[in-house]
């Protein structure tokens, strides 16, 4: 059991929106929050947004896809109910980063580091080692078509790897990656306050080359694909929205378009175990293959040949504990490679 899950919050909380977010959320809730990210409390009104939401709903209705895989979940039964939280709403993160930006301007505080500084440093150093191993051929890169050339060529120098951090929050993970030698760094967050704070911290700390953009991963406007995509708590926050299951489907559809073929997606979560993340990717792969085989389907051609992602590796150095006869950790970091 590798995750600590929130208990359902008191329904009265939802009526207290006028109270500051810090007063609504307990320290235990905050430990699950992860980086601020892109949950919209409304769906927007464009046809594209409505259609994407409808597509995700349809996919969810037929997603009895808990098929057996090489990586079984450590839970004997699925959750009886979906746990939601204020941390799944845009309003929470806007209020949080407004407060943290104000504290930075007055006191110079960087704000809270979700999962803690030690986990952040572990993620950055482990990710560098993983990318180096891929470059040196220690980990098999199954992608051998021409589209993977941009990843293979950049293996000679990690400085040239393009890196995207979705739900970047205060941007400190990108600073850690810069210390590890990565140079082409971009952070996105749907909260303007988070992006403003990340920019201020990057200037203060001397990382002026890091780019920060306001963008919602569920409705991303980014046209570029990246060789390395980082997610530290974003998927956790998405899952805490009342429509979390649908939004997680939308997340995978979107993220799969942001990672270059042969590129890497690294997810750090405190709400999902390694096995649960692998199973979620397996389900997404199955949905993608089924969709690509439908008559008249128009989409990425490579989806029809191979599943979008494959499990690559996970962090094994996090402290573990015993609960209910199972051994696990409070945080899971898992890497997937884009086929």
TrEMBL record:
Primary residence: cytoplasm
GO biological process: methylation
Native organism taxonomy: Eukaryota, Viridiplantae, Streptophyta, Embryophyta, Tracheophyta
Annotated keywords: Cytoplasm, Methyltransferase, S-adenosyl-L-methionine, Transferase
Name the UniProt record assigns to this protein: Protein-lysine N-methyltransferase RHSIM_Rhsim10G0077900
GO CC terms of this entry: cytoplasm
Family: Belongs to the class I-like SAM-binding methyltransferase superfamily. EFM4 family.
Localisation per UniProt entry: Cytoplasm
Keyword Transmembrane among record annotations: no
CDD domains tied to this protein: AdoMet_MTases
Primary role: S-adenosyl-L-methionine-dependent protein-lysine N-methyltransferase that methylates elongation factor 1-alpha.
One MF annotation (Gene Ontology) recorded for this entry: protein-lysine N-methyltransferase activity
Enzyme Commission numbers on file: 2.1.1.-
Any Pfam family the entry gives: Methyltransf_31
Ranges of residues in domain Methyltransferase: 162-278
